[in-house]
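Recap from last week: sequence in, structure out.
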Amino acid sequence: MDVISVIYNPASGKGNHKARLNELITELNARWSQNYRIILTKAPGDGIRVSRDATLQGSKLIIAAGGDGTINEVVNGILAARVSGSTSPELGIVNTGSGADFVRTLKLPQGMRRQLDIVLHQSARPVDLGMVQCKGEDGKPVRRYFVNECQVGIGGAVVSDMNNKRKHFGGTLDFSVAALRQLYHYKSSIINVWIDGQKCNPQELLGIVMANGIYSAGGMKMAPNAQIDDGFLRILRMSEMNLFNRLLTFIKVYSGDHTKSKYAIYEKAKYIEIDADRDLWIEADGELIGTTPAAISIVPGAIRVRY
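Predicted structure tokens:
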């Protein structure tokens, strides 16, 4: 088994994926000669399976080449193999997606060549992950790790909306269109929250964000002071508000000023439990995971990333 495994998602981003793949192979050869293998994902969930297999087969470094969804799957595959007692490989990142939120949080440079130089020359550092446990769409328990964020309520509804509609624009713009639809139509819920074991008063909320990284949804500064190595999640609870304030808050998300709104409660915690008066959609790193009730926690230093 080659020491380095490169997991490439040809569906990530826009443009000619064959040209992008050829560029990736050229840049890999320049740095590691033939001492790597490249695996192309073909369907959602492939990244989990192939990264788990690569870990079990002894890869010391796995490079995730794709967007935030690819990184999420690779991380989940690596941690799935850890259950079997395998030593976790280090993670390198090459962004070929349209969102690039984790890349922004890590402050990686733009461009495949510069990002591969980081993977080649930088030592790996421990990075926290979030973990969500909830009810899957089939009613069975689900556990999923996330690098950027997990959302309950309106954020989950936006991802569900995107999944049910034909994507016309791709990436961030499709997300913004879905978000605007939900800002107009989404109905808030009475949500019960326990933060680090302390029960909060039930509130009528639009949604809750549990953030590990700063950015989500293609550049939204959802948790402006989040740190990926401090052992805490940033928790954002957004209260019900009228349509004007929903739209105003949405605009402020890109600067991070939404956390200062009178409708926001913004704090840090290690563990949160959530239940509601109806089943609410839950998403993690832009993927629909399941519904409430849910428990979300931080996993300090869960993976080592070269950045």
